[in-house]
Amino acid sequence: VLLERDKRGVGRTDIISTVEFNHTGELLATGDKGGRVVIFQQEIENKSQPQFRSEYNVYSTFQSHEPEFDYLKSLEIEEKINKIRWLPQKNAAQFLLSTNDKTIKLWKISERDKRPEGYNLKEEDGRYKDPNTIMSLRVPVLIPMDLMVEASPRRVFANAHTYHINSISVNSDNETYLSADDLRINLWHLEITDRSFNIVDIKPANMEELTEVITAAEFHPHQCNTFVYSSSKGTIRLCDMRASALCDKHSKLFEEPEDPSNRSFFSEIISSISDVKFSHNGRYMMTRDYLSVKIWDLNMENRPVETYQVHEYLRSKLCSLYENDCIFDKFECCWNGNDSVVMTGSYNNFFRMFDRGQRRDVTLEASRENSKPMQVLKPRKVCAGGKRKKDEISVDSLDFNKKILHTAWHPQDNIIAVATTNNLYIFQDKVN
Amino acid sequence: MSEEVQGTTSSEEEMEDKVISPEKAEEVKLKARYPNLGAKPGGGSDLLRKRIQKGQKYFDSGDYNMAKAKMKNKQLPSAPAEKTEITGGHIPTPQDLPQRKTSIVASKLAG
To answer: Which residues form the signal peptide (chain A) (predicted)?
Structure first.
């Protein structure tokens, strides 16, 4: 696996908060805590040669969201971009949805590589000519210019969420999308900003009775009527929009039974699902909780078909992880293009990959200090206790401030994007 | 003879104590440090409600805009100087402070 460095500037608010490839993998979008979106474009060198290497360079940067103030509650609304989702490409322009805690925006990213020249009534700098000086007419022409990439906000979907938006998901019908906050899920039409339909509402009449919140939601990749949402109690509900207008009643409930004798104060907290993702083929879904990644067969509700331990050695550190709030970290997970490998992040800038077919897993590190560009990454190993072997890292020396929460996998190729706190790393399979 | 039997039994008990799950051991640690922590597992709705309401409260919008303006003025001279000035004189705005999640652990003063 090779290493590439990105060209983002490093600044205080440049904490990356989301990473997403578009549907072809040619574009990679990142959102940050400062409300900015940076889009990278893949430039392929020598694709004809067997050892082609692709590089991602900055394509467009724009300010998506600004900090706002909620006058009614006297609370600040962060400009941090929680999620970015690309729309499938329909014409020359690219579209993406970006959201902060309260407002979703549809952005159009278009290229301009020609400009008009030779107007009759205007000078080149835009000033209007005195009509009396015009002696002849000419036809203006379009001449090539340096490529300019423009981002413009086309829709603003606001005022539909009382609580903080954690997910957005574009429907396979390419006309609608959902947005989910802690207690509600809304359905929008991409063309209509002044209305949205509420399709899930789990707010109890009395907030004192609140036991569960929505943590993530996603539409099925092919079935436009199906979506899932995960909860803080470790359950996933699959809903069918054909069944009723309000999908409070689930069609399927996915939950792994728990051994009551193993229950502790931490059980519910670590079972909270931080991310849910359908497989590309639409037959499975993957969930991420604090210590593991689980693969569920959509046809089997009573337990996952596969469970992978991400960092089981943290189970004996839960007390300190609770005290420093790390136990509430929301890790994301992703599938590779053919659903054979899944990936998720961990601490100390480590990230993990699980090969489902070959039953192998690997721990890698995204760090400038420990590997150079174009160098194959060395697998890492954490020593849980006892004798630490050479090259192993002990649990106590892990840096819990270096967390990899956001990762993304190219839809077709073995190219991955891994976000550490401030930096974006792009890794590619070594082709030989 | 009986001494030997006793010896085995006590070491068996020791072994059983060690076999307690690491999670439960951590829970014991936590309860020792924070005896007032919610009786319900996971802290119950208190934890969730804290999760739902994040964000710094201001007295009103004037307060917020004043704080933003003050931070902007203070940022002009030099970036490192402002770090020490953040506490005390004014309320910083979100973009000037590293995010710190509010602690879920109840203070010992809370009933």
So the answer is: none
Residues in chain A: 432
pTM attached to this predicted model:
0.84
- What is the three-class DSSP state of A188? strand
A394 compared with B50, residue with greater pLDDT: A394
**How many other C-beta atoms lie within 10 A of the C-beta of residue A242?**
11
Residue A53 tokens read as 């290497």
Mutate to test the interface with A, among B24, B33, B48, B65 (most CBs of A within 10 A): B48
Q: Which residue has the tokens 């086309």?
A: A154
Q: What is the distance between the alpha carbons of residues B45 and A279, in angstroms, rounded to a whole number?
A: 33
**Rounded to whole angstroms, how far apart are CA atoms B5 and A414?**
62
Q: Token digits for A426?
A: 């792009």
- The neighbouring-strand residues paired with A119 are none
In the block, residue with structure tokens 């429907």: A171
Rounded Cα distance, A261 and A92, in Å: 58
Q: What is the pLDDT of residue B107?
A: 46
Residues of B in contact with A314 (CB under 8 A): none
| Chain A residues within 8 A of B24 when measuring between CB atoms | 262, 264
Torsional class of A267: left (φ above 0), alpha (ψ -120 to 50), beta (otherwise): alpha
- The strand pairing partners of A427, in sequence order, are A3, A416
pLDDT confidence of residue B34: 85
| Closest residue by Cα to residue A417 from A309, A336, A354 | A336
Which residues make Cβ contacts (< 8 Å) with residue A52, sequence separation at least 6? A44, A45, A46, A431
Contacts of A268 in chain B (CB under 8 A): 41-42
Domain ranges in chain A are: 1-111+145-158
B57 CA: distance to closest CA in chain A (Å): 5
Please state, for a pLDDT cut of 70, what percent of chain B lies above it.
40
Predicted confidence at residue A46, as pLDDT, reads 63
Compute the Cα dihedral for B73, B76, B79, B82 and give only its sign: negative
**pLDDT (tens digit per residue) in A106-143:** 999 999 999 999 999 988 888 898 889 889 999 999 99
Q: What's the confidence (pLDDT) of residue A177?
A: 98
pLDDT in tens, B52-98: 877 677 888 888 888 888 877 765 544 444 444 445 556 666 665 55
> In Å, how far from its chain's centre is CA A425?
15
Q: How far apart are alpha carbons A28 and A39 in whole angstroms?
A: 6
